[in-house]
């Protein structure tokens, strides 16, 4: 299997954290730059990362890729991170969706800020900022899993917070979400967290 990824994408990081935590064999990383690499459209016509190639099967969109890898991991006898058929399945998926939404708003903010000042939409920047802060407030109230027992919402939340630290430190999310900050600090030394910390390639 090949995972098209970059070391800066929070969505790709979420997928890779799950694969590492599951100790899933046979996953190779293929570096791609979604903004510069037109060849990426062969595996994702939308031009986005992550994308996964497994033989003849191409999958796009990180929730679907994560679900696929999780199913593989469960087939190998591991505990699933999606909590399928468990009572908290939908609540875990809601946390996943919330954290993905925070990532969407954060990535959009970063892209918008890279445009010239005169071209930036302050309407959208304000709206995305609200999505990030309100999203984090909801996330903070969820059962977020632990280093020993992570679920898909755990990976998604770590990816979202790591991306905020990496690209939008001025948001200073710890000042407004201290419980989340305490929870996040517990993960810093965990192998699948430390090994995937976002960085410019
Ligand atoms: N919903 C997608 C979002 C993926 C996404 O937005 N990836 C960004 C990189 S972090 C990207 O490739 N952006 C390029 C573009 O939007 O053209 C997922 O969950 O995989």
Summarize the structure.
With 201 residues, the chain is an alpha+beta fold. The protein contains 8 helices and 4 strands, in the order E-H-E-E-E-H-H-H-H-H-H-H. Strands 2-1-3-4 form a 4-stranded mixed beta sheet, covered by helices on one side.
Description:
With 201 residues, this protein is α+β, with helices and mostly antiparallel strands. The protein has two domains: 2-75, Glutaredoxin, CATH 3.40.30.10; 89-194, Up-down Bundle (Glutathione S-transferase Yfyf (Class Pi), Chain A, domain 2), CATH 1.20.1050.10. It is 51% helix and 8% strand. It has a four-stranded mixed sheet with strand order 2-1-3-4, covered by helices on one side. Helix 1 crosses helix 5 (152-167). It is globular. The protein starts with a strand and ends in a 7-residue tail after the last helix. The mean pLDDT is 97. Glutathione is lined by residues 9-11, 34-35, 47-50, 61-62, 100, 107. Glutathione binds at residues 9-11, 34-35, 47-50, 61-62, 100, 107.
């Amino acid at each position: 299997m090949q995972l098209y990824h970059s070391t800066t994408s929070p969505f790709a990081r979420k997928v890779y954290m799950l694969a590492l935590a599951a100790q899933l064999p046979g996953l190779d990383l293929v570096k791609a730059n979604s903004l510069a690499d037109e060849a990426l459209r062969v595996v994702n016509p939308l031009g986005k990362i992550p994308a996964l190639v497994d033989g003849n099967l191409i999958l796009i969109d990180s929730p679907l890729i994560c679900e696929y890898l999780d199913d593989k991991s469960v087939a190998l006898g591991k505990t699933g991170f999606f909590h399928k058929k468990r009572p908290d399945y939908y609540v875990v998926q809601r946390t996943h969706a919330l954290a993905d939404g925070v990532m969407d708003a954060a990535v959009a903010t970063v892209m918008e800020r890279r445009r010239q000042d005169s071209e930036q939409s302050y309407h959208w920047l304000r709206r995305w900022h609200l999505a990030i802060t309100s999203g984090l407030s909801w996330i903070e109230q969820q059962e977020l899993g632990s280093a020993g027992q992570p679920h898909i919402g755990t990976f998604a939340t770590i990816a979202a917070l790591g991306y905020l630290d990496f690209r939008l430190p001025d948001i200073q999310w710890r000042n407004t979400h201290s419980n989340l900050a305490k929870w996040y600090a517990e993960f810093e030394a965990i192998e699948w967290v430390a090994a995937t910390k976002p960085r410019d390639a």
